[in-house]
Amino acid sequence: MSVIEARDLTRVFPMPAGPVTAVRGVSLAVDPGDFVALCGPSGCGKSTLLHLLGVVDTPSSGTLTVDGEDVATLGDVARSRIRLRKIGFVFQRFFLLPMLTAAENIELPMAEAGVSKSERAHRVHELLEYVELSKRADHRPSQLSGGEMQRIAIARALANRPRLLLADEPTGELDQTTGQHIAELLDRVNADGTALVIVTHDAVFARRARRILTMRDGVLVSEERVR
Amino acid sequence: MRRARLWVMASAVTLAVSGGGVDAAEPAPGVLISRQLAEAKALSPGSQIRLAPGGDGQSAQTFRVLGIYEPTPDPMEISESKFKVRLHLPDMARLVSGPADLMAAETVDQVNLVLRDPRQASTIATQLMTGTPGIVARQARAAVSGAGTFVVIERFHLAIAIVTIIASALFLLALSVMLVDERRDTVGVLRLIGLTTRRVLAQIFLESLVVAVGGAVFGIGLAAASQFAINRYFQWHYNTALVFVRVTPGVVAVCLAIAIPLGVVASAAASWSLLRKQLMTLARR
Questions:
Q1: What secondary structure letter does DSSP report for A98?
Q2: Which residue in A83, B46, B158, B244 has its CB near the most CB atoms, within 10 A?
Q3: Helix, strand, coil share (%) of chain A residues, nearest 5
Q4: Domain that holds residue B229
Q5: CB A77 to CB B194 under 8 A?
Q6: Domains and CATH numbers, chain A
Q7: Mean pLDDT throughout B28-39?
Q8: Average pLDDT, chain B
Q9: Which ipTM was obtained for this model?
């Protein structure tokens, strides 16, 4: 069963000047362990599609299933639960909580999911080692470099062992070398079994994916199998 | 003879402190003097003073200080002289009677009576007025409470309080909106991680409650500390024991009853407006 399956997804934004269709009739499926790169020019609807897939936004029409469950009609609580347990998010600007340490940022989703304290501590330790930042556990985001913040953001996204990780320009704010390290880390995450969907403008990074989906004007115009 | 209290203002009498010289066989009549007068003229019980009915010092008589008293604080007399002397009624009559006024010793313009049972003041005043034509008797407390000045001041204070609360509420709401907006990223991240709207609101509500209670307690503490300083300053400035500011339990209760709900509602309203926005717009800049 696909981790996520979208059929004929459409998202229309009502605007004062008239409705704008950001995503038009998109269908796709992401299987367990899949790695999909969403590419295309700015404003083509990549991020909007990512938000629809992440149960952040609600489609105007079409169906979306996560682990076989139709999420289009779910309420706020149920959608929040899916985001908490089944989907991880990584953003271009990291979005770590500045008042929390690196370890606390990673721990937060687990605490919300009701994971026991001892289990949380063990998992935080495990994830910090996974992203090679054990020594930075007690540092706040302001004390971390961009690459380190993105590693912590990835660790936080993996905290509740999601089946799907969505990343919106995860290397967009990083220099080439640091971006390369983040790309390698995401490769490792995918190799360990987590399905990945990334939005990127970086053609080199996109070629790490198994499939590259290209969008234009809200429509999927091509799909390329890379490996 | 009934003992009554009469007030002689310092401006109306001439005071002269003497070291004695009064006939020992006929001791000078005793008086009580106000603390302010005692401090200003370095008088103490046993001191001899000379009081005259006019500013020219004519017809001065010698009196002996028997004691020092703290004048009852009266807001109506805040800017007046605190140099006061209490004399026995016959002494007072003798002091102020002129040689041409044969009935002077029998004439009194005003007498203050202190009743053992103040609740009977109204009845006694009525009895005095009906029983003795020409006498006007009224309760001192009633006269004070009906004083227009204090009614106006009290209403003015109420108006200031209402305006202050409304202005504070608007200021607090604007401040809350700004503070919550500054946390747009945080709220967005919490929502993306999977916290529900209700959960985020509860978190903000709890924080607001802590801040509101802390703020209210701080404000009350500040008021309590200020009241001490304000009272000390104005008591020194006006040389009076009058209490100018008093933070009573009632005032504290009103403060808590207004400040805490106001703080919580302002934060909740600001947060609610933020949470109503699309989830992605919360985290997008």
A1: T
A2: A83
A3: 35, 25, 35
A4: 162-283
A5: no
A6: 1-86+165-227 (3.40.50.300), 98-161 (no CATH)
A7: 92
A8: 79
A9: 0.82
